[in-house]
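Encode chain A's predicted structure.
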Amino acid sequence: MRIAPIASILALALAAADGKILYETKCAQCHGKDGTAKPPGKGSQNFNDPGFQSAWTEESIATITAEGKGKMPGYRSRLSPEQLRAVSAHVKTLGPSK
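Encoded structure for chain A:
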């Protein structure tokens, strides 16, 4: 029985779920649960915008999340690198379906 591939799939599924939970607790207040910026995040990117989704990579989203931008504080001291990647991966799921 090959456990390694199953463990990898499980780890990816858990990271995706973790990214969604982190996004909903840390980001959605300003960026909206569906990726549409809310009043506290006025001027923020709409994560569900096709232009945003094509221009930004998971890595660039993780970098901005870690460092902060404008009114948004950086989360480098509050989230681990794995959590930052999970949140940025979730942001990429907010784009339009292909």
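DSSP finds five helices and no strands in the chain.
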